[in-house]
Amino acid sequence: MASSLLLSTSPCLPRLAVLRFPSKPSRNPNPTLSKSFFLSNTNPSTPLRLIRRVYARGTSFGGTGGGENASEDALVGEDSAAFQLEKQSLVSWVYFSGILGVVLFALNVLWIDPSTGFGKAFVDAVSGISESHEVVMLVLIFIFALVHSGLASLRDAGEKVVGERAYRVLFAGISLPLAVSTIVYFINHRYDGTQLWQVQGVSGIHELVWILNFISFFFLYPSTFNLLEVAAVDKPKMHLWETGIMRITRHPQMVGQVVWCLAHTLWIGNSVAIAASAGLIAHHLFGVWNGDRRLAIRYGEAFEALKNRTSVVPFTAVLEGRQKLPKDYHKEFIRLPYLTITALTLGAYFAHPLMQASSFQLHW
Q: What is the mean pLDDT of residues 186-215?
């Protein structure tokens, strides 16, 4: 939960809505979508050049795919999780490190530190609404969701007023403290609810929960990898991704959050865990609708083409034949960002005691 909430502040988390599944489109007689089609139908105001053919070439740390088994379908979206070391600027990463340090320092002083921050006062105010930890958990998630998704929905208008970088700073500056409060409250009160089942001693459950949690981190939304945009070092963009995990599901963060929630609810087995999972899943289901809506406004026909060959439910488009996985599909994951996610996921697992001890010290 911690990683999902925090990483999602790099655009884009919980609201209640109807999950809309893409209807089966009429198939193009020519399975190879031509560039001319997208040139004539793509919104001319689109800030990115979306029309390109992706061939499987490049290094395992970047580029697109690999080898001779290139996909012949013209992609309207971008190649996700691509990271080419030779294109990185040392100065940009120095700026990123500096900005990250400043943000963490400000977060500690203005929100976390009990003597100077407002975090405890905020949690205490919400806790005053009800003595029920379940209700407080849901209210915290609702506040975060309202602010986070509200700012995301106002992004186009806000960027026109203050610019992309300034709006990103505003977005993160408000969302991050609320995410931290929600995470800390969950950690501190996750065992305070009514126990409904207890399976922690059952053989194989720990391994199952660990595997599900590990898998959930690989469904992070591809924008999470764009750290320089997250920190506004590079100008933030609203991306239209199409490769990698997007071929499996068009909303990987939602899928990852659902998997994470199911795993942790199974392990904890009480009413607080259920309340937290219900709130987070509802928020992400709303994000499915809201995300598609925003992309449709921004990219028009290009997004509709992508929508027609992807799905919300994992593997649905593949099973229906609307998405054809390249023969070397696995190479879209053998990249530095996914190797980094693997390392961070393992690190987060072993850092659980440290995370819990830090949360307990706040008394939220």
A: 96
